[in-house]
Design a protein that fits this description.
The complex is a heterodimer of chains A (279) and B (359).
Chain A: H1 11-16, E1 19-28, E2 31-41, E3 46-50, H2 57-64, E4 72-77, E5 80-81, H3 87-93, E6 94-97, H4 109-115, H5 129-141, H6 157-170, E7 175-179, H7 187-202, E8 206-210, H8 214-220, E9 223-228, E10 231-236, H9 238-241, H10 244-251, E11 255-259, E12 266-270
Parallel strand pairs in A: 3-8, 3-9, 6-7, 7-8
Antiparallel strand pairs in A: 1-2, 1-4, 4-5, 9-10, 11-12
Helix pairs in contact in A: 4-6, 5-6, 6-7
Chain B: E1 19-22, E2 25-28, H1 31-53, H2 61-68, H3 74-109, H4 121-134, H5 146-168, H6 175-199, H7 202-213, H8 221-245, H9 252-257, H10 262-284, H11 290-302, H12 309-329, H13 337-358
Classes of the chains: A alpha/beta (279), B mainly alpha (359).
């Protein structure tokens, strides 16, 4: 069964996108993880990349953020090939939160968030009053001002993730790339962090993230990119993209897609084998 | 929760580290770190003077200080400047170089157990030095003036350091792989040293052993001057790169996201660390544990999450001069300084291991 999904991107979508991958192939040492992939990140919304384990989600995010250099094709940031831009200039436009980052033991929240100012600093100008203002605002926006003096390693997982997001905010970019921001978090804390991400989007930022949980991805994003085996299987609004057929094809998951009782998005109910009462 | 974009100054101020501005230069102001560094410098200077004043012909501390600032009497001046200064100065320079080298290595590897000893620099320098002393024998006697030995050890340390770096390279440097490769290369180098010692003439072995323990005895101004200038130049380079290095403590990906070309910065700093350690080893022999202990002590004193560079150097100098003083005065026999640093460093390493295991 090969279903037809919306994979085409209109040329105007690519033009309006601040960040786009064009014919990108990326791999580690010879084997290609991503092959000839096109994707455009729509401005001002939350885009979430989903897909089964090993489909190249994180690789795509790392390529979009310039951590990986594509073997073929190009990632375009504001009309320029991202590889040709200076590392520092990219860091002024695009904030990145990698998967499960680790802070040195004893580093305080304020100091960690302050590191986010690095792209705007130089040897002579290592710390200015502007930096202080931006860091204070970043702490306040993520609700961690009270924790400023605490060591990062003493915080709970959810608080820690807020602090890391705060650091990325201090970078002062309106483009944020988050690689699995809810890893190791229980559902309540995951929702809490995603609410924060939604706040950031409400304040005008463009967010791209990788998520594992399909229902959270559906609820919190305006644009889904579904990947399988290094290619984009479908992309678009969750209401258009999430169907039982697509879930079967992308994940090999038998599921029923119903209306979310508390939202305007679809809700995925996995079927599995046990305790199922299908009519 | 709704997002608040607070106006400047209206909200409760979070305690963000304040900055300091001097003309066009601004930097983070950490009073405690500055204070600790100053106190370390003061204590180091005190020990430095004490090291000069102690000897067969004791000279008062005030005399020493006066002579250092150019107001001394000529008799003392000869003893102080020509006879005793080189030893104290060697302790200062070598200790500082080893301390900074250790701080960089531990930061790069993100591991408190990393040190130039583990990266093979010490063992590489030892092989070359022992080879020169034992195998080359009389033929190279001219080369094996003390300065020649230092230069050869420097080359050996640098060569092994680079070998470890390239063996550990696999599309980038990973801290853990660097340590593993370092340990194995060190083991090979130590085996070579042992083999050379077993084969060598017993008279040469004694000389080689004396070098291998690490000592500040009988340093000449020539050796000290070379080490001093190398250290000064390397510290300038480290100072230039250090700012780019800060985000690296957060891991490669975060650093890259913050606009740091981390492979380049790390390679530059690691090269400086290798050279600093090699300079230290070539001037005083492989003094053990100073590079491992100094950054960890400095971190704890300064309550800093990562090894502070200058404070680590100061701690290294303090440790080495202090250990040398103990080696000369505490026991009836004069011991080489390496014996004392090993006696302090061994238990400290165990403490670090136990602490790492408790987590």
């Amino acid at each position: 069964m090969v279903a037809q999904y919306i994979t085409e991107i209109g040329s105007e979508a690519v033009d309006s996108a601040r960040l786009a991958a064009k014919g990108v192939s990326v791999g580690y040492g010879g084997t290609m993880v991503i092959d000839d992939l096109d994707v455009a990140i729509p401005p001002g919304v939350i885009t979430t990349i989903i897909g089964p384990n090993g489909c190249g989600k994180s690789t795509l995010l790392r390529t979009l953020s310039r951590l990986l250099k594509p073997a073929k094709g190009a990632v375009v940031l504001d009309g320029q090939d991202i590889v040709k831009l200076k590392t520092k200039d990219v860091a002024k436009k695009l904030g990145l939160l990698p998967q499960a980052p680790v802070a040195p033991e004893g580093l305080t929240v304020a100091d960690l968030v302050a590191r986010g100012r690095h792209p705007h600093q130089s040897w002579l100008r290592q710390w200015s009053s502007d930096d202080v203002d931006v860091v204070e605002r970043a702490l306040a926006m993520t609700g961690v001002s009270d924790l400023a003096d605490r060591p990062v390693d003493a915080l709970s997982g959810g608080q820690r993730q807020r602090v890391w997001i705060s650091m990325t905010l201090a970078q002062g970019t309106d483009l944020l790339l988050l690689d699995e921001p809810t890893t190791y978090l229980d559902l309540a804390h995951a929702v809490d962090v995603l609410d924060l991400v939604d706040d950031l989007h409400e304040s005008g930022r463009t967010v791209v993230m990788v998520l594992h949980d399909l229902n959270l991805a559906t609820r919190y994003s305006d644009h889904l990119v579904v990947m399988k085996d290094g290619t984009v299987l479908a992309q678009g609004h969750p209401r258009d993209v999430i169907t039982a057929d697509l879930l079967e094809e992308a994940f090999g998951l038998r599921a029923k897609v119903v209306d979310d009782p508390v939202g305007d998005r679809p809700l995925i109910v996995p079927i599995g084998r046990t305790h199922v009462q299908l009519d | 929760m709704k997002v608040q974009e607070p106006m400047n100054g209206t909200e409760v101020k979070a305690s963000v580290t304040p900055g300091v501005r001097l003309g066009g230069v601004s930097f983070v102001w950490r009073p405690w770190l500055a204070l600790v560094t100053l106190v370390l410098a003061a204590v180091t200077f005190l020990l430095f003077c004490l090291s000069i004043s102690v000897g067969d012909f004791p000279i008062g501390l005030s005399q020493v200080v006066a002579t250092l600032f150019g107001h001394g009497e000529s008799v003392d001046e000869f003893i102080i400047m020509d006879l005793r200064m080189p030893r104290a100065m060697a302790g200062l320079v070598v200790g500082f170089a080893l301390g900074v080298s250790g701080a960089i290595t531990q930061s790069v590897a993100r591991n408190p157990l990393a040190s130039p000893d583990i990266l093979g620099i010490t063992s590489g320098a030892s092989v070359v030095a022992v080879f020169l002393v034992t195998v080359s024998g009389g033929a190279a006697a001219a080369v094996v003036s003390s300065v020649g030995l230092s230069a050869a050890a420097l080359a050996g340390g640098l060569g092994t350091g680079l070998l470890v770096y390239f063996l550990a390279w696999r599309r980038g440097i990973d801290g853990f792989r660097l340590i593993l490769i370092g340990i194995s290369v060190s083991a090979v180098m130590e085996a070579l040293t042992t083999w050379l010692l077993v084969k060598a003439d017993i008279k040469d072995v004694a000389r080689a052993q004396a070098w291998l323990v690490g000592s500040l005895q009988d340093r000449s101004w020539d050796e000290v001057r070379i080490a001093l200038w190398c250290t000064v130049v390397l510290m300038v380079v480290v100072g230039c790169v250090a700012f780019q290095f800060k985000p690296l403590h957060l891991g490669d990906d975060v650093a890259a996201g913050l606009g740091v070309r981390y492979q380049r910065v790390r390679a530059a700093l690691l090269l400086c660390a290798v050279l600093l350690a090699a300079v230290g080893v070539s001037a005083a022999g492989p003094v053990p544990f100073v590079a491992l202990v100094a950054p960890q002590v400095a971190m704890r004193l300064a309550r800093h999450p990562t090894p502070p560079l200058v404070a680590s150097g100061m701690t290294g100098a303090l440790l080495l001069i202090g250990a040398d003083l103990v080696a000369r005065t505490a026991l009836p026999v004069t011991l080489p300084v390496g014996v004392v640093t090993a006696a302090i460093g061994g238990p400290f390493l165990v403490y670090l291991l136990v602490r790492a295991n408790l987590k």
